[in-house]
Amino acid sequence: MKAKRITQSLLFRIFVAIVLGIICSFFAPEWAGRLFATLNGLFGNFLSFFVPVLIFALITPAIANLGQGAGKWLGITTAIAYGSTVVSGLLAYGTAQALYPTLLSNMNVDTVQDIEEGQLTSFFTVEMPPPFEVMTALLLAFCVGLAMTAVPSDSLLRASNQLRDVVMKVIETFIIPLLPIYIFGVFLTMGMNGNLTHTISMFLVVLIVAVVGTLILLILQFALAGAIAKVNPITAFKNMLPAYATALGTSSSAATIPVTYESAKKNGVSESVAGFVIPLCATIHLAGSMMKITLFAFAVMYISGETVSVGLAIGFLFMLGVTMIAAPGVPGGAIMAAVGLLTSMLGFSPEQVALMIAAYIAIDSFGTAANVTGDGAIALVVNRFAKGNLHFTEEPAVDTAATAVGSTQDSERMRHSE
């Protein structure tokens, strides 16, 4: 049963797609390469069309539902989670700026061909213009979501929730199943174009940096949480190791909620605080995911010879933090939300987006483990501020917690909730 579960996981299928793409690139005929270049073009164009719709459909009800939560403590917990996520991105960006000129010095624009170009061309293309731009989708979602918190409308909220369910169904039944084929085609065409060796080398180097980076992030989180909550950070981190190990195996923050909850209580967090913070942070705290996306995004840009200003990079991190927090509990939600910002703000091509998806999924478990373990640090801080007892002036964030727990079923099916 366990072996069957592994073979059905998205991570396993992506791994097989990468390996098969590399192997087939050595002997595949040109027509096969052009065929997959055509399929990749169609799928990439569909993603460009669908991502703005996805962002609007996920963010609007998320903001509206959060606005109906537990008031003060919801705001405090969300602010801490957002701050942790953004700080993670800033640390990753600083690491990239400091290390990539040395680590990736042999994979710069002089030695790596532009992954957008190559000898293979598609048989045909079909233009799929999006209904609106990504930034338009973000602004519209924020405005509508915030408006629904100020002017409650059950019918509008119900409609937005139903639209979210429809979009999640498209992701689950169409986009996620086709990702392995898309990744296979990308590695096949890259191998036939002569870009493969340098790309694989970049993947391995940045993967190591990302794993080490998530561990350093956890050390910083628990050092700060320990100082605020006046507990031993080493002991607190050890108590969260069961949650870390569970997340490594499930790749799902939602599926790890019961273990994270019990681990947080071992650190002295009260039941009321743990019961509120852990389900909420399972959906909105994505510091590990932020680090992965940032490190790989700027690695792809570096080897492609592209640069962005510091201001644009920081703006990208702040926007990505908001987008990921507002798009909880969706299989592949973080990277799918990031696709819109990668293309609109950093100018990523479909091929670069495919590389990002493959890189993200390759170390999905480590990012998820960092997310849920960091939830324990946030619980310590909130427990200190609340003195172990949350007094709600409104109804507790039942909707938010229920969303987190309910998404476990989707997460279990896909094994990929971040």
From TrEMBL:
Membrane topology: Multi-pass membrane protein
Protein name, per record: Dicarboxylate/amino acid:cation symporter
InterPro entries linked to this entry: Na-dicarboxylate_symporter, Na:dicarbo_symporter_sf
Keywords (A to Z) from UniProt: Membrane, Transmembrane, Transmembrane helix, Transport
Chief subcellular location: membrane
Residue spans crossing the bilayer: 12-29, 49-67, 79-100, 134-153, 174-194, 200-229, 241-261, 273-303, 310-329, 335-363
Gene3D superfamilies: Sodium:dicarboxylate symporter
Record has Transit peptide as a keyword: no
Subcellular location: Membrane
